[in-house]
Amino acid sequence: MEQKQMEEKIMNLLTSAPDKTFALEDLEIEIALNNADDFKLMVKALVKLEDSGTIVRSRKNRYALPEKMDLVKGTFRAHERGFGFVLPEEKEMDDIFIPPNEVKDAMNGDLVLLQLRNVKAIIWQKVRLRKLSNGRQRKSSELIWRT
């Protein structure tokens, strides 16, 4: 099995049960993995899907679609005064104001997941590749802020 096929199996499983979260062991059983190589492939696929923001992993190490965890995916637009806005990928949603104390280290153009609580939005996770000064790229998927 190839990684692309594994990603498709994971996505099919998560979309077929949108109201459920899956632990690693649940995914292993549901996908019916045969050997250690398939398990490694599944873990690599999960990391890739998580890094791209297609799926999310909770604090309890359970996987789900961002919509299941009430997360909004969008692009962060910074303002020179320290605040910013997130432009959600869902076009029918309005831009979301992010106050300066919630921006943390998000940078202009970052793809972010944010969680809306009451009226306040918090940036939850950055999911983008950043270019370093030497021209190489590093993955940026670190936690920005959680409640």
Short description:
This protein is an alpha+beta fold and 147 residues long. The protein contains 4 helices and 10 strands; from the N terminus they run H-E-H-H-E-E-E-E-E-H-E-E-E-E. The model is unreliable at 125-147 (pLDDT under 50).
Structure report:
It is a single chain. This protein has 147 residues and is an alpha+beta fold. Helices cover 29% and strands 31% of the residues. It is built from 4 helices and 10 strands, in the order H-E-H-H-E-E-E-E-E-H-E-E-E-E. A 5-stranded antiparallel β-sheet has the order 6-5-4-7-8. Strand 5 (84-88) and strand 6 (96-98) form a beta hairpin. Helix 1 (3-16) packs across helix 3. The protein is elongated and about 55 Å long. Mean pLDDT is 78; it is low at 125-147.
The number of helical segments is 4
Record the strand order, biggest sheet: 6-5-4-7-8
SSE sequence, one letter per element: HEHHEEEEEHEEEE
Main sheet: strands, sense, barrel: 5 strands, antiparallel
- Uncertain ranges: 125-147
Secondary-structure content class: alpha+beta
Radius of gyration: 17 Å
